[in-house]
Amino acid sequence: MRLNEWQLAFENYLLSDAVEAPSSWVTSLQGGPTLDVSGGLAIYHNAYRGRLLEALRGDYPALVYWVGDAEFEQWAVAYIRQCPSAHFSLRWFGAGFAGFLSGYLDQQQAAPLVEMATLEWAFTLAFDAPSRQPLTCEEMTALPASAWPDLQVELVPSAQWVECRFNTLMLWQAYKAGESFVPSERIEAMEVCLIWRSGQVCQYRSLGVEEASALQGMNRGWSFAQLCSALEVTHEEGAALQAVTWFKDWLSLGFLNRRTL
Amino acid sequence: MQKNLPRPGYGLGLRSEYYQPILEQSPAVDWFEIISENYMVEGGKALFYLEAIAEQYPVVMHGVSLSIGGPHGLDIEYLRQLKKLAERAQPVWISDHLCWSRGNAHQLHDLLPLPYTEESLHYIAGRVRQVQDFLGRPLILENVSSYVRSSADEFTEWAFLDALTQLSGCELLLDVNNVYVSARNHGFDPWEFISSLPAEKIRQLHLAGHSDYGDYVIDTHDQPISDPVWALYQKTLERLGPVATLIERDDHYPPFETLMAELIKARQLGQQVVERKSLCA
User: Minimal Cα–Cα distance from B59 to chain A, Å?
Assistant: First the structure.
């Protein structure tokens, strides 16, 4: 058997659900005095699934906490079967898990679980995203007043934007605190969970619709003057005050960069 | 700037569980080995600590995904990222495993065994030369633990490693624990393996723990180094003289002091060999 054929048979064996290997390939292998071929192959077979399962558990701990080990494992095994790893680093294996769940589970069950998976994956993305020093209040104070109207900012590279239609953030917080999960339920108004990394630690902030819209506008290229104009619709003469209040808050949280042309 | 490795030097595998004690205690470790893939990221904690630790200690890079014996073409994107990391970490050397970890279609994330045949030898030697040309430095390859062997083997594993160094110019990372694990599983003499390797090609040694199930042994890196592996290590040092040695731990992480105790033991065994050799000289 040529090297390539032998490896193809090995790969097919690892990917298959059956621990028993085809006899035509087993004859191309030898075991040892106390570890026969089927025992040796089973070690590789188990290790393949075990390693991928462990990676998913590490990426989605709140989902595991929510649905329990057995159910999570059932989904994970299906994911491993349907979406074998394509990246050399296990760090990326879980990237498609939320998308997989949305197709694998029935639609009603899937929506809050997919949202949780999306939220957890966003934390992993923020965790090792490129670093960039955020714009500080001190830098803004040093800016002449005449520069404010044209000021443009954007989110730091680690920022992740997750739109939540369920009380997912509350459930995630319960997991982090080791508390019992409250029932998952749809929330009245969509909220955005903004996640970013400050130093080496991931941070998050829940944003209401109006604040999220303002921040999104800035991230897409509005100037500070355009932000004030947009807020005039709802805040009238208080628009500038509202813009400054949010802006100071965003700066203090450390998720803005000055937009560079 | 790349730091020279104290010779022979005793190192530890750098794992996130130990970042804090390393920075706080500045322990008497000669160098650290990183798992290359864990640092092929854009930013965050891993790179932050790598930079801080690399300022104080020499670093070597050890990969698990090169898949030098795989049926696929060499992964150029992987090699680019490896080279980029090397520019950042300035490692004293770069190692990976004599194995395959990616199949025809998918990543398999394991250090899979190869048939030790003429076909494999020439195929892998060619790929090693390509990698070395790309990286601009010799590649160091480690023997893996295995649980099955190809019945078409034309070489023993140690003869294959020897031939590969000659054909490709690569060097060797001798994992003493892996030799022990494979010897137990396949029923060969671990000393025959070690004593048959070309001594001048062995750049580094690995020591780690395994799980012993009686009829077979699994290379788990989650236990203390076992007595038989220490004994094999001592015998290895007596043959080779002190060689750069690294303690690996990848699960069931003990307190940092426990790992340091293993490192001190390795260092003491190395010093004893030096003393004996100088007395005999």
Answer: 21
